[in-house]
Each structure stands twice: as C-alpha cells, then as structure tokens.
C-alpha cells in the first residue's frame, strides 16, 4: 500500500470519528451552497439575455432618435426682451408675457411659441430650416425676418423679409405662403381671414419702443408703454380706459405723451413714484 493510500485511510478514519451532528451540519451546508450556486446560474441564464436586449435597445434608440444639439427656454414676463441671440446668429425679440422653447437639431431649428408675440431674424441655412410651432399653426422658413402673433384672440404672421410657409398644426395642411411685406391674419381656429400687403416695418417697431396707434384705447396704449417702463397705471374712472388714441409715439418720449394727454381728452394725469394716476 502506497503512502497516499495510507494517508487516505487515516483521513477517512478521522472523518468517521467526528460527531454525527457535526457531519450532518456539514452535509447540510454543502447542500445549501450547491443550491445557491444553481440558483445563481439559473438567474444569470435569464438575466444576461435581458441585459443584452436592453443594451441593444439603447443603442438602437441613440442611432434613430434625433437629440437636440441646443435647447433653451426663454421667458419675457412683464417687460420686452430684445437681446436673444441664438447659436447660428439668428435673433429673437420677445414681447412681454411671451414664452418660447428653442431646440436645434442637425437638420432643423424648432421654436415652440406657447403664447405671446415674437419677431424672428433668421440666419439662412437651407439644410436646417427654421420652424416656429404654435398649437394652431406652424411657420416654416429658410432665412427671413418675420413676426408671429399667437394670442388667444389674435393669430397673425407678418413678414418683413423673405417668405414663410404657414400650415395648420393639426394636420400640417398648408394655409398660405406669406411673402415680403405681407400680413396673414387668421381666426382663433386658424382659418384664413385675410392676406394683405401692409407696412410691416412699422408694425414691428414695438421692439424698439416705437408704436403707431389707430383709435386704440388709452388702456391698451399705456399697457404697451409699461412693457418698456417701470410704471404702474391706475384709472380712477373706468370710462377713461376707452378713450381712443391715434398717432405715432416713442417710449423715450413718454413724459411728453402724459403732458399732451389732458389736451386730447378730459383727464388729469398725476405721476408720483412711477405710479401714473389717470383722473
């Protein structure tokens, strides 16, 4: 008998000499370890294909979903914001109470105009059209200067330079091609009202604090001025709000406007600490 056989015999004898309770615990531990190892193997066989599928799905999405290269939201609360410069040097002028969301993609530039009024000076790029979306209409351009008015009671597109395509947001049906010097007016359901040639440059001067009013109520006129100035307007008589105002005015000459106002209508004006009281 070899030395190895003798050693094996001795080991067996020693194991048999161990207490039965201890041997039983050892068997149970070995059995539990085997069961855990088997469960782990079964889990891995199930999870590995799922992980692989998830990785493949993420890769597929990244290949086919167009993620924006630039994204930002702009908000003009109670004052006009006229200093928005986009990555391609396009410019945006926001009227007060206007919000837009800008997203640039590889093949398009998308502006979501949720509410308000904005002027766009678009840098030309045929491979990356500039699209302004509202809930009711979409405006698509390549390079131009235009205004979109998206208010609850007013829907309008005014083109100063170039031309734009206006379509319904609901079904992308083309409504009109609006060219330089034209104003397109639509009703609240985005149905065509009129398309006329007008003085667009004069219409867009609000961004520079210049206004042309034609039988506009005094209340609306003062609201337009307040978009540029830190003033509060108080009317002591409701009737005075409806007094009509006509003419060309500039915000920088607002004090002169207040001086002339009592010569036009039967009112008194009191200006104290930027609170304008119309009596």
Number of strand segments: 18
Strand content: 35-45%
Q: Poorly predicted ranges (pLDDT <50, ≥5 residues)? A: 58-63
Which descriptor suits the 3D outline? Answer: elongated
Please tell me how large the radius of gyration is.
Answer: 37 Å
Descriptive account of the structure:
- The chain has 279 residues and is of the alpha+beta class.
- Helices cover 30% and strands 39% of the residues.
- The chain is built from 5 helices and 18 strands.
- Strands 1, 2, 3, 4, 5, 6, 7, 8, 9, 10, 11, 12 and 13 form a 13-stranded mixed β-sheet that branches. A 3-stranded mixed β-sheet has the order 15-18-17, covered by helices on one side. The protein has a two-stranded antiparallel ribbon with strand order 14-16.
- A hairpin with a 5-residue loop joins strand 10 and strand 11.
- The longest helix has 45 residues, at 20-64.
- Mean pLDDT is 85; it is low at 58-63.
Relevant terms:
elongated; 13-stranded mixed beta sheet; 3-stranded mixed beta sheet; 279 residues; alpha+beta; 5 helices; 39% strand
Short description:
The protein is α+β, with helices and mostly antiparallel strands and 279 residues long.
Indicate the topology.
Layout: H1 3-16, H2 20-64, E1 70-76, E2 81-85, E3 91-94, E4 98-104, E5 109-121, E6 130-133, E7 137-141, E8 145-151, E9 154-161, E10 163-168, E11 174-179, E12 182-186, E13 192-197, H3 200-203, E14 210-217, H4 218-226, E15 232-235, E16 244-250, H5 254-264, E17 269-272, E18 275-278
Parallel strand pairs: 5-6, 15-18
Antiparallel strand pairs: 1-4, 2-3, 3-5, 4-5, 5-8, 6-7, 7-10, 8-9, 9-12, 10-11, 12-13, 14-16, 17-18
């Amino acid at each position: 008998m070899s030395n190895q056989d003798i050693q094996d015999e001795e080991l067996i004898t020693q194991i048999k000499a161990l207490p039965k309770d201890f041997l039983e615990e050892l068997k149970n531990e070995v059995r539990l370890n085997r069961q855990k190892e088997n469960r782990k193997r079964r889990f891995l066989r199930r999870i590995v294909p799922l992980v692989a599928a998830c990785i493949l799905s993420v890769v597929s999405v990244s290949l086919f979903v167009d993620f924006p290269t630039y994204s930002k939201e702009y908000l003009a609360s109670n004052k006009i914001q006229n200093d928005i410069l986009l990555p391609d040097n396009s410019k945006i002028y926001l009227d007060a109470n206007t919000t837009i969301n800008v997203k640039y993609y590889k093949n398009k530039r998308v502006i979501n105009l949720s509410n308000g009024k904005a002027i766009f000076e678009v840098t030309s790029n045929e491979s990356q059209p500039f699209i302004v979306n509202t809930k009711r209409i979409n405006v698509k351009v390549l390079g131009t200067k235009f205004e979109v008015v998206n208010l609850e009671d007013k829907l309008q597109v005014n083109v100063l330079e170039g031309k734009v395509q206006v379509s319904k947001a609901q079904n992308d049906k083309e409504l009109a091609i609006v060219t330089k010097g034209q104003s397109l007016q639509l009703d609240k359901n985005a149905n065509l009202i009129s398309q006329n040639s007008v003085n667009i440059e004069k219409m867009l001067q609000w961004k520079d604090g210049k206004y042309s009013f034609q039988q506009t109520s005094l209340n609306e006129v003062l609201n337009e001025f307040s978009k540029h100035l830190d003033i509060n307007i108080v009317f002591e008589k409701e009737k005075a709000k409806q007094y009509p105002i006509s003419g060309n005015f500039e915000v920088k000459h607002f004090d002169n406007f207040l001086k002339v106002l009592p010569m036009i209508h039967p009112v008194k004006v009191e200006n104290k600490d930027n609170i304008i009281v119309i009596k």
